C-alpha cells in the first residue's frame, strides 16, 4: 500500500463487508412492486427512525413556538423584531 491508500481497506475486506451489509439490509425486505419504487426500511431500524422523526418534529415545533413567543414579547415592548424589520429602516 502506498501512503495515499493508508486509509482504505483492502479490496477483499471491502467486498466482504459490503456483502455483509447487503445481506443484513435486505433480509426480510419486500421487493419493490415497480421499478423506481423505494425499498422499505428494515424493521430493525423502525424504532430509531421513529424516535428521530419525533425528535426533529419536536425541535421544529419548539423553535417555531419560541420564535412566536419572542415576537409577541417584542411587540408588547414596541421593539421591532428581526423578522418584522422593514428593509432600509433603522432599528
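^ C-alpha cells above, recovered residues below v
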Amino acid at each position: 500500500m502506498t501512503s495515499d491508500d493508508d486509509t482504505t481497506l483492502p479490496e477483499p475486506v471491502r467486498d466482504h463487508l459490503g456483502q455483509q451489509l447487503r445481506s443484513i439490509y435486505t433480509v426480510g425486505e419486500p421487493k419493490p412492486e415497480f421499478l423506481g419504487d423505494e425499498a422499505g426500511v428494515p424493521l430493525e431500524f423502525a424504532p430509531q427512525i421513529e424516535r428521530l422523526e419525533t425528535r426533529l418534529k419536536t425541535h421544529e415545533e419548539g423553535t417555531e413556538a419560541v420564535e412566536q413567543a419572542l415576537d409577541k414579547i417584542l411587540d408588547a415592548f414596541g421593539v421591532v423584531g428581526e423578522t418584522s424589520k422593514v428593509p432600509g429602516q433603522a432599528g
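The helical segments are 11-26, 46-76.
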